[in-house]
Amino acid sequence: MLPSQRARFDIPSDIAWLNAAAWGPLPRAAVEAGRAGVARKAQPWRLPGDFAETQYARARAAAAALIGAAPADVAIIPSVGYGVSTAAKALDLPAGSRVLVLADDHSAPVLEWMSRAGTDGIAIDTVARPEDGDWTAAVLAAIARQPPTLASIASVHWSDGGALDLPRIVPALRDAGAALLVDATHAVGAGPMDVTALDPDFLVFPTYKWTLGPYGRAFLYVAPRRQGGVPLEQTAHGRRGVSAEHIPYLADTSYLPDARRFDMGERDHFVSLEMAAVGMELLAALGLGSVAERLAALTADLAEGLAGLGLGVPAAALRAPQILSVTIPGGTPAGFLARLEGQGVHVANRLGRIRISPHIYNDADDVARCVAAFRAALDAQGRR
Ligand SMILES: Cc1ncc(COP(=O)(O)O)c(C=O)c1O
Questions:
Q1: Are 184 and 203 in contact (CB under 8 A)?
Q2: Distance between alpha carbon 124 and the CA centroid of its chain, in Å?
Q3: For 251, phi and psi rounded to 5 degrees?
Q4: Tens-of-pLDDT digits for all 384 residues of the chain?
Q5: 74-77/16-17 β-pairing
Q6: Quick check: CB of 78 below 6 Å from ligand 1?
Q7: How is residue 78 annotated by DSSP?
Q8: Does domain 6-26+287-380 match CATH 3.90.1150.10?
Q9: Are 193 and 187 in contact (CB under 8 A)?
Q10: What span, in angstroms and rounded, lies between the C-alpha atoms of 141 and 138?
Q11: Ligand 1: which of 106, 183, 205, 325 to mutate, most ligand atoms within 8 Å of CB?
Q12: What is the topology classification, in CATH, of domain 29-285?
């Protein structure tokens, strides 16, 4: 199995950062890239003429490699919400459309449609949280009940770690003639993802969590059949012939033929672009199958240890291998996470669950530290 990659990060031995789903530490190599990038901005005259193009191409290729896409089908964007708004503008859903979302899904894949519901005459169908934790069955039942125009859903639910089995959901959507937007925030970088096999209309992910990168960088896959849409922002670089160096300036305002037309304005934030590329390249080099295997082993050990303390642990088959969201019978006592942090254990409180999300920098010592900290905190608060 892939060994712990902790040496690639600057994490003290008494810290168990089990919070990748919130935001992750940067690999040392990404920190170095950031430092070099800032220094470069201080002396722009040293940059080679093709520097910008090289940077876009590198980051785009690194993002595409993580999801099995062609680079030209991937746009450089700043956030997941930006990607969802881009998709919404490109789709331009007519009145009467129905958008399927998940109950308590993250705001990013949901709020765009809620805000359009009032103005554009679209209806939102919310899949209720399934009692048995089986999000896939719940989504399939919802599609059968009322075929949607679009499903705008996460592939892993951010709060409970529930996994949505997209290879089972996609055919049902296709039969219903529905489009699919995937918020793959908690999937890309934590395991294999293949848009060529899956064929979503849009798939979006940020870099600051599982792909070991900075804030302010995200990527949007746009299926070729959706690349004719109007971008969210009107940029010179999204057009075929708008150049500051040529007269006439607006020589050809037709859009680029592929997903690059959706690139954000000010994509030239080279500091973070290169940091993002470094994190993604590291994951690809390690192998996403190997990463997934390691994370599954870590959460399995955590599940065993925490179930032994009487906590509620979801069935492994229904959760993403990289996230373990546990419940304390009777609810999480006040101050519980602060007690864990006092022991160097960092996890997240998400909608009544304690979300534990390891990544490649975690090891067996972190698992042991985490279980011991839970035991001590439960004992201290009379909950065991
Ligand atoms: C499922 C999910 N989607 C999206 C985001 C972030 O969205 P944005 O990049 O728009 O801030 C998060 C952040 O926690 C998330 O958990």
A1: yes
A2: 23
A3: -65, -40
A4: 999 999 999 999 999 999 999 999 999 999 999 999 999 999 999 999 999 999 999 999 999 999 999 999 999 999 999 999 999 999 999 999 999 999 999 999 999 999 999 888 999 999 999 999 999 999 999 999 999 999 999 999 999 999 999 999 999 999 999 999 999 999 999 999 999 999 999 999 999 999 999 999 999 999 999 999 999 999 999 999 999 999 999 999 999 999 999 999 999 999 999 999 999 999 999 999 999 999 999 999 999 999 999 999 999 999 999 999 999 999 999 999 999 999 999 999 999 999 999 999 999 999 999 999 999 999 999 988
A5: unpaired
A6: no
A7: S
A8: yes
A9: yes
A10: 5
A11: 106
A12: Aspartate Aminotransferase; domain 2 (3.40.640)
Residue 191: partners with Cβ closer than 8 Å, 6 or more residues away? 288, 289, 291, 292, 295, 321, 322
> How is residue 29 written in tokens?
């190599």
Q: Which residues contact 299 (CB under 8 A, 6 or more apart)?
A: 319, 321, 322, 323, 324, 356, 358
Any ligand 1 atom below 6 A from CB of 183:
yes
Verify whether ligand 1 is closer than 6 Å to residue 215 (CB atom). no
Q: Is 108 in the pocket of ligand 1 (CB under 6 A)?
A: yes
327 strand-pairing partners: 312
Ligand 1 close to Cβ of residue 384 (< 6 A): no
Tokens of 96: 């009467």
Task: Establish whether residue 83 lines the binding site of ligand 1, counting it when its CB lies within 6 angstroms of any ligand atom.
Answer: no
Q: Which amino acid residue places its CA nearest to atom 16 of ligand 1?
A: 158
The 10 Å Cβ neighbour count of residue 170 is 18
Ligand 1 atom nearest to 206, measured from its CA: 9
Helix (H) or strand (E) segment spanning residue 283: helix 270-286
Is the CB–ligand 1 distance for residue 313 below 6 Å?
no
Q: Tell me how far the alpha carbon of residue 228 lies from the centroid of ligand 1, in angstroms.
A: 26
Amino acid in position 374: F
Q: Ligand 1 within 6 A of 112 CB?
A: no
Segments making up each domain of the chain, as ranges: 6-26+287-380, 29-285
